[in-house]
Amino acid sequence: MKVEILPALTDNYMYLLIDQDTREAAIVDPVQPQKLLEIIKKEDVVLRAILTTHHHWDHARGNEELAQLLPGLQVFGADERIGALTHRVSHGQELAFGTIRVRCLFTPCHTSGHMCYFMWEDDSPDAPALFSGDTLFVGGCGQFFEGTAEQMHTNLTQILGTLPKDTKVFCGHECTVRNLKFALKVEPENEVVKEKLAWAKQRDDEDLPTVPSTLQEEFLYNPFLRLTEEAVQRFTGRTDPVEVLRALRSHRDNFKKPKERPNPQAMLAFDWGLFGPFLEKK
Ligand SMILES: [Zn+2]
């Protein structure tokens, strides 16, 4: 199985999966159809299916257009809000495209209908691959928009965390540097976080993706998979793993990108209440 990493929008990824024997292909989260169609032509493959992780527009917006352009295209997903959906899949369901085998792993929380896709080929030396959408990121996890810390805990520890350690992790967004900056705040002494952050910054500078990682690596630097580590518990002031996760996510939500912070003058004005009338109009 060949995985082509296709950057889309500002920091999304689409993933084209190719069975190199039959030249059949499937695509995960094709938000930019025209870009995908160019690649399909260049690679000379037949696109059989779309695998949608969740209904958010930056993952599913391209479905309708592709379904119109490619009649017979199968569209998989676990949420009725996903455009052009033809096959609603459930947890544990298995699919096959050529020699590529897929197991659907239901991970509700970021959205209530979020599905991850675990893929492998029988009799292949290649490591399996996980397409984790906005549930598990390199160095982080997705926001809890439609779910609870209990659900994300199940997702990370029981559903995804128990996959083979050499599983390659392909996530929905390039947000590794920001995630690892937060990870370093959580665990300032963690050398693996420092090393991975330096590497990720370098990749960013060269405009190269930081995906895939491996599950094994994630356990070493991703605080959301390190809930029982003493340093992570100390940072959150909690010991119960679900509570540690809840507190971590809440800290991460407030760990804004620098550009999202008001500039110092605006903050001063805000402190003095000068923006009051403007705020009231909102
Ligand atoms: Zn999302």
From TrEMBL:
Keywords, comma-separated and alphabetical: Hydrolase, Metal-binding, Zinc
Cofactor(s) this protein requires: Zn(2+)
GO BP of this protein: methylglyoxal catabolic process to D-lactate via S-lactoyl-glutathione
Domain Metallo-beta-lactamase: 11-173
Pfam family, one: HAGH_C
Keyword Hydrolase annotated: yes
UniProt KW Metal-binding keyword: yes
Gene Ontology terms, MF aspect: hydroxyacylglutathione hydrolase activity; metal ion binding
Family: Belongs to the metallo-beta-lactamase superfamily. Glyoxalase II family.
Name listed for the protein in its UniProt record: Hydroxyacylglutathione hydrolase-like protein isoform X2
Source organism of the structure: Geospiza fortis (Medium ground-finch)
Gene: LOC102044410
